[in-house]
Amino acid sequence: VAQRSLDGGAGERQTLTLMEFENRRQDAVNRRRMTTLLRGPSLRPVIARLEAEVESGLLCVRPSLNLAADVGQRDNLLSLLGCYNPLWLRLALEAISGEMAPLGAAADDAHALRKWLDKRFLAPIRLDPAARPAAVAAAAGRHPDKVWEEARAAAVGETHKCIVRRVLCVLLLLDRAKETTVLEADPCLFCPDSTIKSTRQMAIEFARSFLSGGIGDLAKHLAYMDAPLAHAQTAHHEFNFTVQSLATDLRDGARLCRLLEVLEVASAPSGGAAALRLTPSLRLPAVNRTSKLKNVEIALRAMEAAGAPLLRHPPDLHGCAKLLIEGHCEATLELLWSLICHVALPRLAPVGIVLDEARRARRTANTD
């Protein structure tokens, strides 16, 4: 957080500038990771095969549609892509198009991205009316209106090919990026309020709404091409683990399990995977007492396994869990202090390292 300095705000402005610079640097790192993934050996051969199928007409838009001029169909396509989280969608669009999408304010970023997606990324190929005389002259002996109509139909066909190529690239790239955790924060791939929560469902909906039926199930077709769509967003991904009130937020057990996982990650060697995975076994959303009790018991068993004692009264796990889900203040604080003293502190300051530093300090004091 920027602090206001005594020199009239110059220090604060400089701090904010450095924060903005760090954000832009991180954005550049994320763009490079996404571009490297797109051009890497895992996706490049698949995308090349998809482009060949699009050019041959195997993957094509239905003949009855005109995505270059039909405003309603284009709006449906934009709404379909709008199911993606704007953070992920922006990176994919920039990596595929090679252009930087404009940044909007936090409140209307999705709207600004949708507008850029319509005007630039999925822009239709438009014929210049000034080129009509040259096209008519090149086709001597044919009716001018017929020649120009064929040219417009060819432009619509090229637009459809471009749209299919780019949308399929977005599907594959975002699925692989999410599975490989390109973004360190690892936000949800889809918006929590969207009706689509998996890349497989996205591919099926895109094929059902816009593509011809030549290939059948698009998700199975991609899997046959060694590009299976694996990511599916669940309630565990969408759950907000932020703690705002100790009196109420720990009662469902989910945040307590996540805290234990974070402590395990912090104590693991650099680059090592976390050995503790509790959140996949949680019942979310925990809307009833039974689900909350199961989640809290999972957390308490993990605490016992980590060496943290439970409550003195009651000493049994089930009774301790009941107090926690009922919001008992003293029991909640006692559990947290037990977690801090027996799990967090030994990982932040291991006993062996502290003893070595104490011996070194004594030797230095005796030498002086």
Descriptive overview:
This protein has 368 residues and is mainly alpha-helical. Helix content is 60%, strand content 0%. It contains 15 helices and no strands. The protein has helices at 10-38, 44-56, 71-81, 86-97, 109-121, 132-138, 144-179, 199-210, 218-224, 235-238, 254-267, 289-306, 317-325, 329-348, 351-367. The two termini are 41 Å apart.
Helices and strands in order, then pairings?
Elements: H1 10-38, H2 44-56, H3 71-81, H4 86-97, H5 109-121, H6 132-138, H7 144-179, H8 199-210, H9 218-224, H10 235-238, H11 254-267, H12 289-306, H13 317-325, H14 329-348, H15 351-367
What is the gist of this entry?
The chain is an all-alpha fold and 368 residues long.
For the secondary structure, the number of strands is 0
Number of H- or I-type helical stretches = 15
Assembly category: single chain
Principal-axes geometry comes out as elongated
How much beta, percentage-wise? under 5%
Quote the distance from N terminus to C terminus: 41 Å
The percent of residues in helical segments reads 55-70%
Whole-angstrom Rg: 28 Å
Which structural class fits the helix and strand makeup? Answer: mainly alpha
N-to-C SSE string, H for helix and E for strand = HHHHHHHHHHHHHHH
- Summed over residues and divided by their number, the pLDDT gives a mean of 84
Unreliable stretches (pLDDT < 50, length at least 5) are 1-8, 269-274
In this structure, how is the largest beta sheet organized? none
